[in-house]
Write a structure and sequence with these properties.
- The complex is a heterodimer.
- Chain A is an alpha+beta fold.
- Chain A folds into 2 domains: 128 residues, Penicillin-binding protein 2a (Domain 2); 346 residues, Beta-lactamase.
- Chain A is built from 16 helices and 18 strands.
- By secondary structure, chain B is mainly alpha-helical.
- Chain B has a domain of 70 residues.
- Chain B is 63% helix and 12% strand.
- The chains are: A alpha+beta, B mainly alpha.
- Chains A and B meet through helix 2, strand 2, helix 9 and helix 16 of A and helix 1 of B.
Chain lengths: 559, 102
């Protein structure tokens, strides 16, 4: 009965499985290899990036480590690469007595390296268990020897100090830094951040040799004319580069003294003075620029005395004729003649000319110690006094700038202490009409060469010096004092001016013993007959020029 | 085509690693040189500082007073001559030409 149920039917099934290539488009073999290559490629790219990154980090860190060193400041060099300021690192060696293992052994070893030290004192210090300095600014040899001792108690401290190899010579230009490494005056202040960041030295336009020679003459004449102080600026008229800027008295930067005496101010940039007749050149230049006068324009029947409200204007020399040409007004330094030119110009034109050449407003300069000309209200009487340089103030630096512009062909310049690329000085803007400079330069030359001129002592052969003197009384509250400011603004060579030099003596006195040697005639004269610029600052300028002239003429022949 | 691509990539990787390897060697050399230059630069700076100080006009004037009996003299620009060489002949001429108003 159950036979039917237990029957097993065996059937041979056809094996339908056969190996076939994947019908999909994916090629597994190819993708696996590509993937491996891709992974390798990514790894190699990451590795390369990392390598480049590490490579660049090394350089950056190297610069950073130098710059972020405490008290780091870049060096300052003159135009010839001589160091004016240098940051030097020094190593101080100290001993921490607590860490000394064998005091006797240490003392014996130290005696071998520093035989001249007082070891009873050092021994006492070791007993006190207080950290002390064994040697400050150690030499390289001794540093190596002491480090080879391998004593843990010996500690070395690297310090950075600022060295000024030229001592007083650039004190006002460079300025000082405080104990926290912050510049407090001069370029150290105005370039404080830059000096902390740059790696290369900051190059200035000044020349150490010329600065030295000018300062030497100022120091010499300080004792001759017993002035309160003096200043001299030598500047290139074509690009405003300051070759020398001396203000005396000065101070030694290495001593790091606090200078609070006002007599030590930078007279060249901070001193604001009424400079007198040196301004007459600007009045004449303004008249020529406006086309209102020519050098041969005549002014007839000039008074000897003018009165404007409370002001009485006199000629300083009664021998000055009543009829003068513009040229003669400037050569003879006629006050009344200058007033007449000023009146012809009127307020707006004279004011705008003085603003244009940069003597009326505060100058933008590389150092922050800059004086601000005293503002005043223009009026008829002010116009008259300003025309011959009274009742108007400015700084010697601005005076030099003004003279540079009116003599260099009328091109604007910016006085600078920082050496810049020649490209920066190109494309100068002409602010005074063509031809004015040539006329002015001829008159300035005659002031030095002619008998009527006031600057004969500056007629040094070979340099074609031209210039204008200015003798002004110093202002006090409500009037004028007897003290004087004697100025000489000169340019040379007048045929093609290259340099402007301003010499200012603050409160000079006459000298009884000084012997003047005439330049325009034979002979000499003993004693200073008049306390005027012609007998004081012109003489100083002449002596300076005799010293620096050969250097300027030969060293900068190609410039 | 695929084989060529693989081979190219492989060769490129090989070349890159070879170049990188040689670059690394050069970098190491540069690093060693820079490390050697650094103390020399510092030494040069110190030497130049010393030179600046010793040859400063103030210092030279002091030496002059100390070691020489005669004073330094001013050079008159009129006496300076300009030497020019032409066809193996040296010609001396005035450095400053006198202007009419001198």
């Amino acid at each position: 009965m159950n036979d039917k149920k237990n029957n097993v039917i065996l059937e041979e099934y056809e094996n339908e499985f056969s190996y076939k290539k994947s019908k999909t488009n994916l090629n597994i073999e190819f993708n696996r290899i590509a993937f491996i290559f891709f992974v390798f490629l990514v790894i190699s790219i990451i590795y390369s990036i990392q390598l480049f990154h590490l490579g660049s980090l090394k350089l950056e860190n190297e610069i950073k480590s130098l710059i972020t060193k405490k008290n780091y400041r870049a060096d300052i060099v003159d135009r010839n690469g001589n160091y004016l300021v240098k940051t030097v690192s020094s190593i101080d060696i100290g001993i921490n007595p607590i860490e000394v293992i064998d005091k006797k052994k240490l003392l014996i070893n130290l005696q071998l390296i520093f035989p001249n030290k007082d070891y009873t004192d050092i021994s006492k210090k070791l007993e006190k268990n207080k950290y002390f300095y064994l040697e400050k600014k150690i030499t390289a040899d001794n540093y190596e020897k002491i480090m080879l001792l391998g004593d843990k108690s010996i500690k070395s401290e690297e310090k950075l100090t600022r060295i000024y190899p030229q001592k007083n010579l650039f004190s006002h230009i460079i300025g000082q830094i405080d104990d926290d490494n912050q510049g407090i005056s001069g370029l150290e202040k105005s370039f404080n951040e830059k000096l902390k960041q740059i790696k290369e030295p900051l190059q200035l336009t000044v020349d150490t040799d010329i600065q030295f020679l000018i300062r030497k003459e100022l120091v010499k004449f300080q004792s001759v004319f017993r002035s309160k102080g003096s200043t001299a600026i030598l500047m290139n008229v074509n690009n405003g580069e300051i070759i020398s800027m001396v203000s005396y008295p000065d101070f030694d930067l290495n001593k790091r003294e606090t200078v609070s005496d006002l007599n030590f101010i930078n007279r060249a940039t901070k001193g604001v003075y009424e400079l007198g007749s040196v301004f007459k050149t600007f009045t004449v230049a303004a008249g020529l620029d406006e086309g209102l006068i020519e050098t041969d324009t005549e002014f007839l029947n000039l008074e000897k005395r003018l009165k404007c409200e409370k002001n009485v204007i006199n000629e300083y020399n009664k021998k000055i004729p009543s009829d003068l040409t513009v040229e003669q007004i400037l050569i003879r330094s006629s006050n009344i003649g200058s007033v007449r030119i000023g009146q012809k110009l009127e307020i707006d034109k004279l004011k705008s000319f003085l603003e244009k050449i940069g003597v009326l407003n505060r100058i933008d300069f590389d150092i922050e110690e800059v004086g601000e000309p005293i503002p005043f209200r223009w009026g008829k009487c002010k116009l008259a006094t300003v025309s011959f340089g009274h009742g108007i103030t400015t700084t010697p630096l601005q005076l030099a700038k003004g003279y540079a512009i009116i003599t260099n062909g009328g091109f604007e310049i910016k006085p600078s202490l920082i050496k810049r690329n020649l490209e920066d000085n190109k494309n100068q803007k002409r602010i005074i009409k063509e031809g004015v400079s040539q006329k002015i330069n001829l008159i300035l030359r005659k002031i030095v060469t002619t008998k009527e001129g006031t600057a004969g002592f500056a007629n040094i052969e070979g340099y074609e010096v031209g210039g204008k003197t200015g003798t002004a009384q110093k202002t006090t509250i409500g009037g004028y004092s007897k003290a004087k400011v004697n100025t000489f603004a000169s340019i040379f060579p007048t045929s093609e001016p290259k340099y402007v030099m301003v010499v200012l003596l603050d409160e000079p006195k006459t000298s009884e013993d000084y012997i003047y040697k005439y330049k325009n005639k034979v002979g000499s004269y003993k004693g200073t007959p008049f306390n005027t610029a012609g007998w004081t600052s012109v003489e100083v300028a002449g002596k300076i020029l005799e010293r620096i002239g050969p250097i300027l003429a030969t060293k900068y022949i190609e410039n | 085509m695929k084989k060529i691509t693989f081979v190219t990539i492989f060769v490129l990787i090989l070349i890159t690693s070879l170049v990188k390897n040689s670059t690394k060697e050069i970098e190491d050399k540069i690093f060693v040189l820079n490390e050697n230059i650094r103390p020399l630069k510092s030494e040069l700076g110190d030497m130049l500082l010393e030179y600046s100080y010793l040859s400063s006009p103030d210092q030279l004037t002091q030496y002059q007073y100390q070691f020489f009996e005669k004073d330094l003299i001013k050079i008159d620009i009129i006496k300076i001559k300009k030497l020019t060489e032409k066809n193996n002949h040296i010609k001396a001429s005035d450095f400053i030409e006198k202007s009419n108003d001198e």
